[in-house]
């Protein structure tokens, strides 16, 4: 019986082949099926709404039930803006940014050196007799160099996006700042459009219509993308991605 030892190279190749095979199996399982959507119950928004922060609300007075000016949410004069864990508000995203950068640089340098000894107590003449034909101490060393560099760059970019998404307060920090998270998924045929937003907001920045602009969200993280057949075709294959990383040219 003969035992075969695997070299490190074979182990690496075998591991890469196993990873590619497993990833291919995952892709094959989605052939002919629409891309799945994320279950709302698995998000942090649902957890915040399912277990609201009861300590943040003030207990109602016993006589508030008979008052026309009660502060409960169902009251006509109550503040209906989101203010505690589990409350929902609308994030208005209206991005219209444009940036242009243009620069140029140039560099030029030249140098010249020359060394000769025509007279030095008759020594150059004696040395010339022993030098090869055409060589002389009068022009012993002469060197010249020059270099020129020019560079230019131009960047032009414009981002425009107009969206509205509902977000949920998932946490109320000790200083009163609210941490929000929101997600939205829309499936059209075999493509799912995904929009996510998160960040920190001040309760005073929430408008009367229970809306807040994206530029008032600290640490805002806005992502707009998708998954499905179109997104899959636009991505390079795994082999090409590995080649781009490993190949030095």
Describe the structure.
The protein is of the alpha+beta class and 249 residues long. The protein has 2 domains: 40-56 and 73-98 and 158-237, no CATH class; 101-154, no CATH class. It has 5 helices and 6 strands; from the N terminus they run ααβαβββββαα. It has helices at 8-28, 44-50, 123-130, 229-234, 238-246; strands at 88-115, 141-172, 178-188, 191-201, 211-213, 218-228. A 6-stranded mixed β-sheet has the order 5-1-2-3-4-6. Strand 3 (178-188) and strand 4 form a beta hairpin. The longest helix is centred in the first third of the chain and has 21 residues, at 8-28. The radius of gyration is 36 Å and the shape is elongated. The mean pLDDT is 78.
Q: How many strand elements?
A: 6
Any idea how many domains?
A: 2
Most strands sheet: 6 strands, mixed
SSE series: HHEHEEEEEHH
Estimate the strand proportion.
35-45%
Order of adjacent strands in the largest pleated sheet: 5-1-2-3-4-6
């Amino acid at each position: 019986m003969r035992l075969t030892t695997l070299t490190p190279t074979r182990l690496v190749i075998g591991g890469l082949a196993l990873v590619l095979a497993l990833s291919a199996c995952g892709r094959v399982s989605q052939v002919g099926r629409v891309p799945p959507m994320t279950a709302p119950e698995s998000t942090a928004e649902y957890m915040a709404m399912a277990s609201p922060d009861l300590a943040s609300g003030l207990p109602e007075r016993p006589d508030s039930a008979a008052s026309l000016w009660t502060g409960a949410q169902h009251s006509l004069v109550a503040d209906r803006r989101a203010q505690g864990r589990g409350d929902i508000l609308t994030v208005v995203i209206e991005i219209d940014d444009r940036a242009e950068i243009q620069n140029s640089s140039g560099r030029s340098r030249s140098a010249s050196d020359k060394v000769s000894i025509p007279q030095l107590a008759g020594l150059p003449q004696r040395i010339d007799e022993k030098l090869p034909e055409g060589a002389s101490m009068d022009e012993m060393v002469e060197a010249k160099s020059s270099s020129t560099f020019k560079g230019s760059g131009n960047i032009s970019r414009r981002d425009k996006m107009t969206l509205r998404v509902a977000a949920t307060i998932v946490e109320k920090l000790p200083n009163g700042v609210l941490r929000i998270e929101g997600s939205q998924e829309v499936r059209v045929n075999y493509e799912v459009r995904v929009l996510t937003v998160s960040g920190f907001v001040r309760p005073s920045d929430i408008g009367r219509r229970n809306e807040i602009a994206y530029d008032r969200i600290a640490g805002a993280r806005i992502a707009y993308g998708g998954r499905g057949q179109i997104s899959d075709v636009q991505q390079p294959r795994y082999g090409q991605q590995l080649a781009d990383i490993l190949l030095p040219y």
